[in-house]
Amino acid sequence: MYKLLIVDDEPLVQVGLKSMLNWNTLHIEICGIAGNGQEALDLIARLKPHIVIADIRMPVMSGLDLVRKCREQTGELPVFIMLTSYEEFEYAREALRYHVAEYLVKLELTPESLESAVKAAQIRVDTAIKKQDSSALFSKTEPTPAFDLQTLQDRFYIRLLNNLFENEEEFSRQSEELPICLNSPCYAAAHLELLSTDTSDTNAAQQLTLYNSTLQMFHKIMGKFFPCQIISLDLRYWAVIFSLDNTNDKETISFLRNAFRETAQMLHNYYNVTILAAVGRLLKQPENLSSSYRDAKQLSTQLTPKNPLLFFDELPKHQTLRNVFDMTLFREPLRKAFDEFDEDALHGVFLSIFDLFESSSPPYTQVMDAASNILHLTLTLLSDGADIATKIFSAEPDGYRSLYRQTSVNQIISYMEKLDSGLCHIFQEQKKDYKNHIVTNVKRYISAHIGEHLTLQNVADAFSISPNYLSQLFKKYNDTGFNEYCTQMKVEKAKQLLRNENQKVYEVSEALGFESAFYFSKVFKKATGMAPKDYQNHIL
Q1: Which range marks the domain in which residue 407 is found?
Q2: What is the DSSP string of 32-86?
Q3: 292 and 354: one domain?
Q4: So what's the pLDDT on residue 56?
C-alpha cells in the first residue's frame, strides 16, 4: 500500500483531490492532509508518505520550498506531484531541479490526468525503493530485461520505424499479440528534436527530468487532438507515430500544424524549450511507416529554430533530399544481435557498415545517421540501454551524447568503433544470464496468460524473438520443452479449478483455452492418470 499526503491551502481542493479517485483501487492510502508546506514537512517526517500532491504556491512555506527541504532531508522519497496554474511557469521550471514526477494544471485537472500522474509517481516510488533494497531481484551486475507490456510495445514500434520486421505476417502477429491497435484511416511518422537554453548549468539528472517532463506534456497536449505514440530515442530526439482520421492530405496537414504550434508554445512557456519537428508523408498502411519515418529524418536536416516545423508532403516535387542510412540493409544480423545478446552478429554489422563507408565515401550526414541509428537501437531495444551506453562512454563529459559533438566522418567512425567494442564486451558478459532470465520471464508470461491458447509462435512474438530460438532456450534452461511446460501449467491450474465443486469440466476447459472439453479431458488424463470428473470426485 502506498501512502499519499495532500498539501494545499484551499479546503475545497483538499476535498476535491480526496474524492476525485477511488484510491483503494490504486493501492493508495491517504495518510494525511496539510494546509501549508511547513505543516506538510512535519507530517512527512512523522508519517513517511511515498507520494505528496502539493500546490506549488502556499502560505508559510511554498510547495517548491517543501520539495527542496525534502530532497535535502529525505532524499528521493517522497515523490512529488505539483499543482500549478498557467501563470506559474517559472516555478515549474525551477521545480525540475528537484525531480518532480508530474505537474498538473488546476484548471485542467481531471480524474484521468490525476490517475495518470499518480501511476507515474508510483513507478518513481518503486524505483527509489529498489535502490534502497539490497535484495532486489536483479543486482547492478546482472542484466535486467523488463519484459512488461510497455517495453514490448516500445520494441515493436522501434522495429516498425526501422523496418526490422521480417515480413508482413510477423508484423501482424506481434501487433495482435501485444496488443497494438493499428486500424486508423491514415498514419504519419515524425522525427522531433528538443532544444533547451536552460541546460548549460544543469546536471544529467536534471536534464533527464526536463526531457521526461517535456515528453509527458507533449503527449498530454497532442493527445487532445489525435492519438499518438511517442518513442524516446535519447535525451535529445524522439519519434512520434500519429493515428489520423482524415485522409485528406491538406486538411490533415493543416490540423497537424495547428496542433504542433499549440503544443510547442505550451512547452516553451513551461520549460523554455524549442521543439523541431519533421513530419513524413501521410500513408494508409501502418506497416509502411518506416518510409514515412525515413522521410521525416531526411527532412529534419532542414529544421531550424526559425523554421521549426516541416511536412514532407508540402515539399516541391523537384526538391531532393539527402540520403539517410538504411538500417534495413543489416536487418537480420541486427535482429539476432539485439534479441540474443550476440556480440559476433553485432560486430559483423559494424564491420559491414565500415566497409560500406570505405567503398562509397559517404557524406558526414549519412555517417551520422548510421551512428545515431545504432545508438537509438541500443537505448531502446535493450532494457538497460541507457545505462550500458553511459558505461561505454563514461570518460566523455556528456556521455554517449558526445556523438553529437563529432564534427567529422573520422570522428564519428571512431565513436562507432568504441560503441562496437563496448557493446560486444557487455553482450559477452550478459549473454548467459540473459538467456536464463528470458526463460524466467517467458514462464511468468505463460502463468499470466494461462487461460489463452498458448503456442510457441505467439509467445515468441510477444517477446520479439524467433520460435526456434525460444524452443532452444527452453530445452537448455528448463527440465521440459515449451509445449510440455505449457501443458503442465494448464493441468496444475485445472486441478485448482476442479477443486471447486461448482466448476463443470467444460467450464474449466474453456477457462484454460482448450479447443474442446474432449481434448482437455484427454490431456488431463494423460498427465494425471485420471479423467477430470474422476479427479474432482476423488478430491471432493
Answers
A1: 327-433
A2: EEESSHHHHHHHHHHH--SEEEEESS-SSS-HHHHHHHHHHHHTT-SEEEEEE-T
A3: no
A4: 82
Which of 163-167, 320-324, 348-352, 498-502 has the lowest average pLDDT? 320-324
End-of-domain residue from the set 132, 152, 173 = 132
Q: Is pLDDT larger for residue 309 or for residue 436?
A: 309
Read off the amino acid at residue 520.
F
Calculate the alpha carbon distances from 26 to 19, 115, 177, 220, 492 in Å: 13, 8, 26, 21, 31
The verdict on 306 and 334 lying in the same domain is no
Whether residues 300 and 340 share a domain: the answer is: no
pLDDT digits (tens, 9 = 90+) for 361-392: 888 878 888 888 888 888 877 767 888 888 99
Q: What is the CATH number of the domain that holds 30?
A: 3.40.50.2300
> Is 384 a member of any domain?
yes
| Statement to judge: residues 188 and 280 lie in one domain | yes
pLDDT at 10 over 60: yes
Q: Give the dihedral sign, CA 329/154/240/411.
A: negative
CA dihedral 206, 208, 212, 218 (to 10 degrees): 80
288 CB neighbour count, 10 Å cutoff: 16
Contact 128, 77 (CB under 8 A): yes
Q: Please tell me the predicted confidence (pLDDT) of residue 122.
A: 87
At 310, is the secondary structure helix, strand, or coil? strand
Task: Output b/e per residue, 376-410; b: 16+ Cβ within 10 A.
Answer: bbbbbbbbbbbebbbebbeeeeebbbebbebeebe
| DSSP string over 454-477 | --HHHHHHHTTS-HHHHHHHHHHH
Distances (CA, A) of 428 to 421, 422, 425, 435: 11, 10, 5, 12
Q: How many domains, the chain?
A: 4
- 34: which strand partners? 7
H or E segment to which residue 437 belongs: helix 409-448
Q: Is the pLDDT of residue 537 over 80?
A: yes
Alpha helices by DSSP H, 75-179: 89-95, 111-132, 149-161, 168-177
pTM above threshold 0.85: no
Last residue of a domain, one of 314, 337, 360: 314
Backbone φ, ψ for residue 270 (5° rounding): -75, -50
199-253 pLDDT, tens per residue?
455 566 667 677 777 888 888 888 888 889 998 887 788 999 999 987 777 888 9
Contact 93, 206 (CB under 8 A): no
CATH number of the domain where residue 253 is located: 3.30.70.270
Q: Which of 93-102, 179-188, 379-388 has the lowest mean pLDDT?
A: 93-102
Q: What are 450-501's pLDDT values in tens digits?
A: 988 888 888 887 776 778 888 888 887 777 889 999 999 999 999 988 887 6
| Count of other CB atoms within 10 angstroms of residue 306 | 5
CA distance 330 to 315: 30
d(CA 454, CA 467): 12
Whether 230 and 294 share a structural domain: yes
| β-pair partners for 237 | 193
Give the β-pairing of 51-55 and 102-105: unpaired
Which one is predicted more confidently, 539 or 485?
485
